[in-house]
């Protein structure tokens, strides 16, 4: 029998000891727990479609340096925090100066705050499902702690620009933790970009602790290059009457994986998850979502759409778990998929587990191709075949793109989608 591959010990050694001692102790503890960690294979249920795309070498274990210049001169309609290879760059950032809101690098935390944070990191995630979040816990070299006091409102979106640059192989592990106090509000935009051509690994973790009545919007835009393997996890804990809204837009690469886990732990909590993924060439993108209805009278709505062209591969695995005490739950999951070529592949697996008897739940998934009748109709009205393809494909996802509440992100996503269309469709 072929032995199960294990994570190389080279990945268990972080390069920088620039954080407070409680966080260093946590990192050391989590690194020791990863000794002989098995890597996922096609027999690993939640990695069966993605394991073959995971390519880790000892060169990638080296921490990417954060001493270069960022390529980010992005003018954003809000506040901005810039990370280079997982380390915050203060001089490139623009922080809000508002009562009740603090934003600090992990490296700048005092001992008391670092101790409190060390007890919370990872508490929003099921690490059995998001295995590589453990690697982030053993390797992060900085992070961002965002704290909103009760009633605090961030008046403009906060953009976190995660830039990865690799002139040589290596890895980076960005980390963000958000504590949203009761009745607080904010919009957080995380944008992932890259430069350089060397093969690199980016392992990200973002966590939200959403207190009673808080209203949080999270926007995640993945635009990294073809040299980047990206494995990310987002964990959310929601208290009573809170609302969490997520918009994820992803463009494929050699390996893209995102685990999004939401726990509705307080009565009356609501969550809305939207996702759009496009892949082409030989790219791969895998979205795994999990919504746990723990408390009663909670609502969840989830809509993900995938488009795959050429010989690319997209995956959606969505699970809704209605716990025994979660009476009066309302949950709806919908996944629609569009194949643009016969060589493309999309795998979808919606899951619904119900252990309560007074609920309203639904889930569904479809996979199809562009409708030839609709194409013929548009072409017969004088529209070129390429433009007809673009119109129908954009219509398939425009409903979700249009719901992104920050105009600058919508425009950025649209620009990248236009590039996708230019490469995918040729004028007939």
From TrEMBL:
Database matches in InterPro entries: Fe-S_cluster_assembly_SufBD, SUF_FeS_clus_asmbl_SufBD_core, SUF_FeS_clus_asmbl_SufBD_sf, SUF_FeS_clus_asmbl_SufD
One Gene Ontology term from the biological process aspect of the record: iron-sulfur cluster assembly
Signal peptide region: none
Domain SUF system FeS cluster assembly SufBD core: start-end pairs: 169-396
Pfam families in the cross-refs: SUFBD_core
Protein name: Iron-regulated ABC transporter permease protein SufD
Higher taxonomy: Bacteria, Pseudomonadati, Pseudomonadota, Gammaproteobacteria, Pseudomonadales
